[in-house]
Amino acid sequence: MSELTANHFLVLSAALFIIGMMGVLTRRNVLVIFMCVELMFNAVNVSFIGFAWEQNSLVGQTFALFIIAVAAAEAVVGLGIIMALSRRLDTVDIDKVRELRE
Amino acid sequence: MPVVELVRPEWGLIVPELILLGTIVVVLAGDLILSRRQHSVLTWVALAGLALSLLSNLTIDWDAGRSTFNGMFQADYFSLFINIVVGVAGILSVMISSSYVEGGEEPEGLPWPEYLALLLFSILGTMLVGAAGDLLMIFLGIEMGSLAVYALTGFARRRATSLEGALKYFLLGAFATAILIYGMAWTYGATGTTALDEIAARLRPVITGEGGIEASLLLALLLLAIGLGFKIAAVPFHMWTPDAYQGAPTPVSGYMSVVPKVAGFAAMARVLVQALGPLSDSWLTLIAILALATMVYGNVVAIAQRDVKRMLGYSSIGHTGYILVGLAAYSGMSADDRSVSSVLFYLFSYAFMNIGAFGVVTWLQSRGLGVTLDDFRGLATRSPLAAIAMTVFMLSLMGLPPLLGFYAKYYVILAAVQVGLIWLAVAVVVMSAVSAFFYLRVVAVMYFNEPVGDWKTQRTPLLGTGLALMAIGTLVFGLLSSPLLDLAQKWVQAFGVA
Hints:
The complex is a heterodimer. By secondary structure, chain A is mostly helical.
C-alpha cells in the first residue's frame, strides 16, 4: 500500500466535481440537477480538506465548515423554489418549464 | 497550555453594516407585531435604516485603511465606495418597490416586510463583499446577497413565470458558486492562504522567479473568473439573465440588475486585482475578450426584444461588457491607473439609470399596462413627466452627453485608451451606437404613437419621487462627476496597503 498523499484527495475531489458538473449539464430533472450541484459543493470540501491536510493548517477546514453551512442555506432556498414551482406547474422537468422566451 | 489571545474586533469599523443588520431585525420584528395595514410604516424604517447606514460611513476614518476581525474585514476607500453605491441603490429600490408590492400588482399580493428584509439582507451581503479581506468573506458575502435575490426573484410565487426565472437563476447561480469556491480551493492550495493581501504577497516572488506560473494557479484563476463571470452575467455565462429579469417582479429586476452586479464586480476587483494582481498578465486578456463578447452579444440581441424587461436584461448584459472594459484596463497599482475607479464610477451611474428604467416600467404596471414596447405607446400624452424620466434614462443608458451614462462610458474608454486597448475603446463606441437603436425606439414609441390600452389613474407618490430623484441624479451627477471620480480613484490607496 502506498502512502496517503494530497493527490489522493485532489483526484477524488476532481472526479466528484466533474461528475457533478456533467450531471448539471446533462440531467433534466430539477431535483437531480440540484443534487449534482450539492455534489460539486462537497467535492470542493474534499479539496479544501486535502489542501489543509497537506499544509497542516486549519484554514481549509474552517472554509469547508462554512461551505457546509452555506450549502444548507442554499438547499432551503432552492428546495423552496422547486416546491413552489412543482405545485404550480406539476412538473420537475426543466424542459417543461419554459414559458419565458423571446 | 498556551494562552490563546482572542482578537478584539474593532466594532467601529463595521458600523454601517451593523446599522443595516439592526434595521433588518426591526423590519422582521415589525412583521410579527404590526397588522397588515400598518406594514407600510416599515417602508420608512427601511429607508431610515439605509440612510443612517450611508451617513454612518462618515464616522469611519477611511484614510487609515484599517482591517479588523483578523484581516477578514477591510474598511478602506474601496469598501466606502461600494457602501455608497449599494446604499443609494437600496434606497432607490425600496422607493420603486413599495407601491408595486403593497399595491397588489401580483396575484394575491406580496408580503412587504419579508420583501424588505430580503432586500436589506442582499444589500448587507454586497457590503460585506466590498469590505472583504479574505476569500471566505467574499464567498459568504456573495452567497448572502445571492440567496436573498433568488428568493426575491421567485417572490411572486402565484405566478409561474416568476418561479421559472427564480429556478433558472438559482440553478445557474449555485452552479457558479460551486465553480467559484473550487477556484478558491485551488488558490488556497497553491498559495497556502485565503487572505487576499497574503495571496498577493506570496504570488509576487513566484512571478519574478523562473519557471513560469504553476498550472494549478492558472486553473484557480480560470475557475474564479468563470464563477464570477456567472455572477456578473458575462457572455458566455449569461443564460440566466434574460429569464430572471423577465420573470422577476419588476422592481426586483431593477434591483438585481444593479446590486448583485456590484457584488460580482467588487469580488472581481478584490480577487483579481487585490489578490491575483501579480498574475495580471494571465487574466487581462481573458477579461478583455469577455468584455468584447459580452457587449456585442448583449447589445445585438437586445434589438430583437419586444418585452421591455427582457430588453433591459440584454442591455444589462451589454453594460456588463462596458464595465469589464474598465477592469481589463488594469495596469498595476499606480496612482494614475484608472481601471478600478472607472468600474466603480460606472456601477454608481448604472444604479441611477437602470433602477430608473425599471422604475418607469413599474410605474406603467401600476397603471394597468403591461411590460411590452406597445404599452409605452403614447406615454408622452398620458403622462409627460414619466415620459421625460424614461427618455432621460434611455439616453443616459445609451451614453448621450451630458448625462451620467456618458461620463461612465467616457471614463471607461479613457482607462482603456490609457493602457493602449484602442480596439476595446472603439468597440465600446460602436456598441453604444448599436444600442441607440433599441433605446431610442422606446423614446420614439412614447412620443410618436397613439396611446393604446386602458389607463387607470393611480397615485404612487413614493415611486414618483424615486423616479424624479433618479432622473435628476442622472442629469446632475454627470456634471458633478469629478469629486466622485476622485473618491473612486482612491482604490489604489485601498489595495496598495499590504
